[in-house]
Amino acid sequence: MIFTPLFMKKVARNILMLLFTILLFNCSNDDKGSFSTDYFKIEINPKGYITSMVNISKNPYREFSPLEKPSPLLQLYDGKKKMYYQPVDAKFNQADRSITLSYSNGSVAQVLLSTQEKYLKFTLESLSPRNEIDGIQWGPYHTNITNLFGEIIGVARDTSAVVNYAIGMLALDDNTIGGTSETIADAAPFQYIIHSPDPEIYPLPDSLHEGQIFTLGGDGISDVAFYAHKEPYYRIMYGNSALVDEKGQISINYHSRDRTFEREVYYSLIPNMPANTPNHLEIQPLAGVDFIGSSIALWGSPDSSALLDVIQDIVLKEGLPYPTIDGKWVKDPSAFVPDAMTNGSLNDSIISYTSRMGFKAISLYDQGFIKPDRGNEGYLDGKQFEKKPIQLTSGNKSHKEFSEMAAKHGISIGRTPITNALAPGTKDASPLPNDSLCYQQKRLLVNNISQTDTILIVDDPTHLEEIASWEGHAENLNMIKIGKELIYYLGVSQEKPYRLLNVKRGYWETTATEHQSNDTIYKLQVTLNYGYDGLIPNMQLQDKIAEYYADVCFINGLGYYDFDGQEFLFNNGHGYYSAKRFFRKMFERAEVLGIPTIRFTGATLSEGSWHYQSIWNVGGGKNLYDVETREWGSTTSQGKDLRDVTYANFFPIGMGGNFPINANSTVEQYEHIQAISVGLGTTYSLVLNQKDVENCPEKDAIFKTIRIWEDARAADAFPLSVKKMLADPKKNWKLNEGEKKNTWVLNELIDGLTNKTFALTASGRK
Fold first, then answer.
1. 181 in Cβ contact with 193 (< 8 Å)
2. Per-residue model confidence (pLDDT) at position 20
3. What does each C-alpha distance from 627 to 234, 478, 752 come to in angstroms?
4. Using CB atoms within 10 A of its CB, is residue 463 exposed (0-12), middle (13-18) or buried (19+)?
5. 520-524 and 176-178 as β-strands: parallel, antiparallel, unpaired?
6. What is the pTM of this model?
7. Positive or negative, the Cα torsion across 681, 685, 688, 689?
8. Cβ(256)–Cβ(177) under 8 Å?
9. Measuring CA to CA, which residue among 198, 234, 304 is closest to residue 644?
10. pLDDT tens, 29-66?
11. Quick one: how far is CA 665 from the chain centroid?
12. What average pLDDT score do residues 555-563 get?
């Protein structure tokens, strides 16, 4: 056997790590525990607080733990008292490589520690006695970083050339989710927070301060109108895994909950808006879903290499979801690729267009919504594929037939579902509603009623005056379920006998039947109207809906989804855990069926979907990126807001359904679009209407231009220094193929003439 220098280096490092571990766990309780990775070192004091977080990747070492704000390694949470307990004592144990944390309420936690090359792994092994503790929280881990915060995955980033460092966390199990233990229904409020990523460039006005909270804009119904602040210091929040304090300093935290008992929350995803005031929701208990075993990876590293060097390493070593496209992790910027989006209901050339540009998926957006209907067993077009909804001049095709045509070019097709909304007329909603529906409240019927009675007396009117879901409070969805009958009502009398008002029997074409006193009344949890009308399943039924979507892919040849109404996954009160569980069930079923990774976008992005979700092309047009003004959101701040969220959370930025090719389209426009896409790391859904495309004089040149950029991106030909220049919307570019294979020539243009030239070559990185 030949012992290479690299092999000997690894052996030496392993020996040093072993010695380090022995020394570490031999330290007395009066000493600080010190733990290191290749890039990061922390110290935990005898009380169980992190008092030091240091970048050890370069000299001089930089300290990131604020002296005045030590960070509790693990907090305990009493949900009834709404009280946290911080550790008061920490003992480091050599025998089982653990840390014993004691708390003022008498509880003692045993935390296992595993030191890896690029991260520290902490796992809660036990907590005894529990003493009313129903949640635990890792952190908050306070930093003095004030630049970018990733509120979805929990990361504090300093992207400056001088510092170039990030500190973050990842959950290593499904029930450990981003955020704090007091987060209502485990989905953080959707709102703005004030934070300047650079106070010198973007100083706050005197009327604002760091950490200040504001509600969204608009009427609370139009999602485009939510985005109401173009100022760079208004930062929209899609989670609370990272937060900022009054100094702009960033803290990160994850938590885990005991989900085995029933509890009630007062929940809305947008609680500060009158149109979306909270509803009281009884949360379904989930047997066996507890915080024991909660595990996180804590890491620190150079920011510029954090994603592919450290986060990817954690994902692979800990067996976290790892979806790929063409063999690359979907978070790898060289794997980012736009999609085609159909428009106009004519599809003769859509596969050809998509192939010529190097895209990998076609979103059949003009086919409308598909609804989760287990009644069709996954067959969108009938058991014999007799329906032919996809129009071609030569003859219409079923999804399966069209998917087979696309697959010959390495392209998958996809549809837009309304995630978990059980629509009227579908198997689980009506005319025979499933018994596994999510409900807001459970009451008893006081009186016997016939098939035609509209006087329904309930035992308790509490919260029954609330209208339907928190989202929009759609009156037409205000209903209860008794047995197999859905019954509409609106309002309840406030004096005995408590009577439901405005009753309509046999709602949604269910059958009105007799019901007896003491029958159970379920006030159902629902979605909203505007075509999204539906009932929310409970967790077990939601599991089956997730598996159904994998079946739809397998049967019909789909490989792409645009999950509209993705926020409905939060409506059962289990928040990010619910989303994480939904996508895990879908991916696990897909693996059993032997189909490739399902690529998906959706209406939102959360810690629950981050690992599974490939892209986030929500909205579109001038709301996202205006190619004419070269502005992120010329009509609203949506483009700026979503750009800032995704970039900070190491996720591809979406430009939405955009940039339709028509008679006025030019090559120069798409050179710019592709430069921004590559430079900043974005994807988009290119709107393609066959008639409009064919009326474009420059269509062939546009296709070729996009393909050149996409080939170079896939070859990882753009160094970071070039990407930074490409991201500047003021600059103009022209990319050509080089004389040799896998080479390109990038020209910066000023007034149409070449100013600078960059020779690009495929990196060879796989």
1. no
2. 43
3. 23, 43, 18
4. middle
5. unpaired
6. 0.94
7. negative
8. yes
9. 234
10. 446 799 999 999 999 999 999 999 999 999 999 999 99
11. 33
12. 98
Tokens of 643: 């750009």
H-helix or E-strand spanning residue 381: none
Residue 5 has a pLDDT of 43
DSSP, collapsed to helix, strand or coil, labels residue 448 as coil
Residues 412 and 553 sit within 8 Å (Cβ to Cβ): no
Answer yes or no: is pLDDT of 108 > 50: yes
Cis peptide before 129 (omega within 30 of 0): yes
Distance CA 727, CA 749 (A): 15
> Quick check: 746 and 678 in contact, CB under 8 A?
no
Contacts of 585 (CB under 8 A, 6+ apart): 543, 546, 547
Residue type, 76: L
Asked if 613 contacts 601 with a C-beta cutoff of 8 angstroms, the reply is yes
**Quick check: 252 and 141 in contact, CB under 8 A?**
yes
What confidence score (pLDDT) does residue 221 get?
A: 72
Task: Say if residues 735 and 709 touch (Cβ distance below 8 Å).
Answer: yes
Q: Which residue type sits at 148?
A: L
For residue 560 the two structure tokens come to 């792409």
Rounded distance between C-alpha atoms, residue 338 and residue 361, angstroms: 8
Do β-strands 369-370 and 412-417 pair in parallel, antiparallel, or remain unpaired?
Answer: parallel
Sign for the CA dihedral angle at 291, 541, 531, 620 comes to positive
Q: Which of 600, 555, 547 is nearest to 401 (CA)?
A: 555
Going by C-alpha positions, the residue among 534, 65, 474 that lies closest to residue 279 is 474
Residues 6+ apart with CB under 8 A from 372: 417, 418, 419, 420, 421, 422, 426, 428, 545, 548, 549
Give me the mean pLDDT over the 261-290 stretch: 96
Cα separation, 673 vs 667, in Å, equals 10
Q: Where along the chain do its domains lie?
A: 33-178+251-261+286-320, 328-419+538-727, 439-524
In one-letter notation, the amino acid at residue 529 is N
Which tokens belong to 267? 């929940």
d(CA 42, CA 49): 10
Q: Residues 6 or more apart from 208 whose CB is under 8 A from it?
A: 194, 233
**364 beta partners:** none
Q: Which two tokens stand for residue 172?
A: 């290593």
Closest CA to 681 of 727, 728, 716, 746: 727
CB atoms within 10 A of CB 162: 7
Q: What is the residue type of 185?
A: A
Give the helix/strand (H/E) hosting 356: helix 350-357
Pair 541, 395: CB distance under 8 Å: no
Q: Which residue in the block uniquely carries the two structure tokens 């209406």?
A: 603
- In whole angstroms, what is the distance from residue 653 CA to residue 644 CA? 8
pLDDT bracket for residue 96 (50, 70, 90): confident
Nearest C-alpha neighbor of 672 from the set 590, 608, 740, 733: 733
Answer yes or no: is pLDDT of 15 > 80. no
Q: Mean of the pLDDT values across residues 551-573?
A: 98
At 707, give phi and psi (nearest 5°).
-65, -40
Q: What is the pLDDT of residue 23?
A: 42
Q: What is the DSSP track for 453-484?
A: ----EES--TTTTS-S-TTT--GGG-EEEETT
DSSP H helices, 118-253, are: none
Residues 6+ apart with CB under 8 A from 515: 445, 448, 449, 482, 483, 485
Tokens of 738: 């080089």
Cα four-point dihedral sign 430, 377, 403, 413: positive
